[in-house]
Amino acid sequence: MPFEDLPATLREAARRSDWRAVRDELRTVMDGVTTDGVYGRALLQFVMSLPLPSDPVLARYRASICIDHGDWDGLLRHLGSNPVGATELVGVRDIILSATDRLEPPYSSAEHERFLFEIYEFVFQRAVRRYKRWAHRILAFYPDVIWSRRDIPPGRHLRSRRLQDGVWLAVAESHGGVLAVAEACADEAERLGDEGEPGRDLAHDLGLLIRHARGGRLEGDLRLRARINSPVGLSPLGSWETLFHVVPFYTFLSDDSLEWTAAVGQQIANRLGSPRAQLQARTWHVTARLLQGRGADEAGLLGLLAESRWAAPGLRVVPLLLRGIASHRPEDLQAAELIARQVGNVWAQVSALTWLVAIDPQPLTARWLHRLLEVTGWRRPILVPTTIAADAALGLSAAGMRGVSIVELAALGGRANVTVEVAMRHIDDAEAPRLARIAAVEALGKLGTTHSREILHRLARRTDDLGNVARRIVTSRATGTTLSERELEVIDLARHGLTNRAIAERLSLSPHTIARHLANARGKLGAANRAEAAAMFEEMKV
């Protein structure tokens, strides 16, 4: 049955050709500004299929849907019906169709229109720093206009705004800020808005991918791709926007998500006729081909570099980074890092610096990379193979840098000899931060090699903090059950009867993070529940 996912009252009114009732029903679920919602493309297609008499509100709905689908002839036709907010429609259209070198959104004297134009503009030119500032500014913006707009249902719009606020911040911080902040925003956004909102799926996937970027395991199923493929998936424009928020993180995945996203993005961009959307899709198509092992020429890198040469700086970041990765020339990587820094693209900056420190370690680049790793939380830089990450960690430690981030970067590199060398540099350096030295001992415990066990037994004879940590690891039933310092803190507090919320307040973490630490500890200890884990923890005499 067509449109079976839509509200029954709406379908029944349409069956009776009761257009007044249809309009009233639509105004509870259809938003002329945020067209993608719980009912996805099905609702948009339903609206376009009805022989509804036109009025300014319906003209707005239909005009917005035309923009979502790149139907510029239809948009022009509906603009002739005096839709609500015609200036907004024209401004968004012009942004989508603008050339790749555009830098500024259309001018408007109305504050709500400026906010609308800015987010579209910053997404289409990948102006990460400006997008991040926008995501923080929008938190303080209250749109009075919604109370006088008949095309916006206030209840749904305000609930959706809270969800969007969280998602916008999560996206902004994941691309150009601190990953811990991005993860917290994504976790919170999953609980905002209405049940079934596509923004929740984006928040869910972004949260999983961010945790992996911070060094965690990639656990759980991603939802966004299945949602887009479903009848209640997002519109073409909404699909493009959403996918290209997460596409850098798809380089972590071993399936075809990156290739699929590039292909879908290219189809949508062609349909929209958007030069900037096409350039971004082409960028990730070339990226996917390079990751498949193809050479720069075969992957189309030279053509991409030519196409992006005069584009806005944000659109040049990834092409230049790909050039540096393909050539291994420090000057190419330096150019990529410079332009990434210019537009505030932190993930690309971290990636470029990691490659630089791995192949040509210099004091300045080492210091800058170390600072970024410590502040932003990146542990798995995008487009950086684990071997390169390990070399970078070695370069950082050889340059005299010390920190938890360096130890964790080395450990995730998957090369035992590098992990041992980096760990020992921290352990032997009495001036190194205490937490970094403890992290180094724990990294040796996770290795499980004969050499690392010998080192741990020697360390266990010490009488300081490092000796305590080493003894705890040695006396554990197996190295694989070693608990991290944070897991030890959490399970010790749980042992004393504190709830997750109380532990979160004590450690300045979110309850969600506490639950994850407890789950990790239970898994390592083989405990069925928190009580059993606490009892096993006590028996370990840590």
Number of domains: 2
Helix/strand/pairing category: mainly alpha
DSSP helix fraction:
55-70%
The radius of gyration over CA amounts to 26 Å
Number of helices: 31
List unreliable stretches of 5+ residues.
none
Number of DSSP strand runs: 0
* Mean pLDDT level: 92
Strand fraction band? under 5%
Oligomer: single chain
- What form results from the Cα inertia axes? globular
- Biggest β-sheet: count, sense, barrel? none
* Measured distance between first and last alpha carbons: 62 Å
What does this structure look like?
By secondary structure, this protein is mainly α. The protein has two domains: 8-216; 344-540, no CATH class. Helices cover 68% and strands 0% of the residues. The protein has 31 helices and no strands. The protein has helices at residues 8-15, 19-29, 40-49, 56-69, 72-79, 86-97, 111-124, 128-137, 154-176, 179-189, 198-213, 224-229, 236-246, 257-272, 275-291, 296-299, 301-308, 313-327, 330-343, 346-359, 363-376, 386-398, 404-412, 416-428, 434-447, 450-459, 465-475, 485-495, 500-507, 511-525, 530-540. α4 (56-69) runs antiparallel to α5 and α26 (450-459) crosses α27. The longest helix has 23 residues, at 154-176. The chain is globular. The model has no long low-confidence stretch (mean pLDDT 92).
